[in-house]
Amino acid sequence: MNHSIYTADRATHLKVVVAGLLAGIAVAATTLTVHLAQPELGLQKAKTLAVYQARPMHALTEMAQR
C-alpha cells in the first residue's frame, strides 16, 4: 500500500476517486431523503410589514440626503 501521494499508483488514485464518489452519493441521498420526508423544513414564510400610518419625516430625510 502506498502511504504517500507522490508515489501513489493508478490503483490508489482509483480508490480515492471511488471513495469520493461514494461519499458524494451518500450525502446527496441523505439530503434528498430528509427533504422528501419532511418538506416543511425547507419552507421559509414570507415576512410582510404592515404600514399603519405615514411617516412624513422619512420623506424629508430622503429629500435632504439627495
Count of helical regions:
2
Q: What is the total tally of β strands?
A: 0
Low-confidence stretches: none
Taking the sheet with the most strands, its summary is:
none
Order of helices and strands: HH
Task: Give the helix/strand class.
Answer: mainly alpha
**Shape estimate:** elongated
Distance between the termini: 71 Å
The overall average pLDDT, rounded, is 77
Folded structure, characterized:
The chain is mainly alpha-helical. It has one domain (10-65). It has two helices and no strands. The chain has helices at residues 10-37, 56-65. The model has no long low-confidence stretch (mean pLDDT 77).
What key phrases describe this protein's structure?
66 residues; mainly alpha; 0% strand; elongated
Q: What's this model, at a glance?
A:
This protein has one domain (10-65).
What does the secondary structure layout of this molecule look like, with pairings?
Blueprint: H1 10-37, H2 56-65
